[in-house]
Amino acid sequence: MYEFLSVILIVFGILQIILFFKVWGMTNDVNHIKRSINGIDNQDWNTAKLETLAGDYDKAYKIYFRCFINDVYEMYKRSDGASNYYADEYAKLVNIYTNRLDTLKGEYHISFEKYATREKVKEMIG
């Protein structure tokens, strides 16, 4: 009986250790989760960072701009007529991309005013 109980406790202990490392791994993905919620594609974001490090600022800018346009479109779809939601989320998005573009050397900017309201985006989409 003690041998059976010992085997059960050892298996239970091993499973607890595995579970601990799985949970720990999930907590390390907070940045990825945050970017996913904001609609930022993590792979494109990392590619743009690598291009910045490599000194190819034009390519990094193009990637950031594509990500920005994608994020604006996703916000447009999610807002569904709620102007306050779009305005609040857009302000956060502008802050994120302003900080990213500041890391690029040169005159790289996005005309944020062009996409500032849901109505302006709706006119562009048609």
Explained architecture:
The structure is a single chain. The protein is an all-alpha fold and 126 residues long. The chain has 2 domains: 1-38; 40-126, no CATH class. Helix content is 79%, strand content 0%. The protein contains 6 helices and no strands. Helix 3 runs antiparallel to helix 4 and helix 4 runs antiparallel to helix 5. It is elongated. It starts with a helix and ends with a helix. The model has no long low-confidence stretch (mean pLDDT 83).
Features:
2 domains; 79% helix; 126 residues; mainly alpha; 6 helices; single chain
Which regions are unreliable across 5 or more consecutive residues at pLDDT < 50?
none
Number of strands: 0
What share of the residues lie within helices?
Answer: over 70%
Radius of gyration: 22 Å
Strand residues, percent: under 5%
Main sheet specs = none
Which outline best applies?
elongated
Mean pLDDT: 83
In short:
Helix content is 79%, strand content 0%.
Reconstruct the topology from this structure.
Elements: H1 2-27, H2 30-38, H3 42-54, H4 57-79, H5 83-102, H6 118-125
Helix pairs in contact: 3-4, 4-5
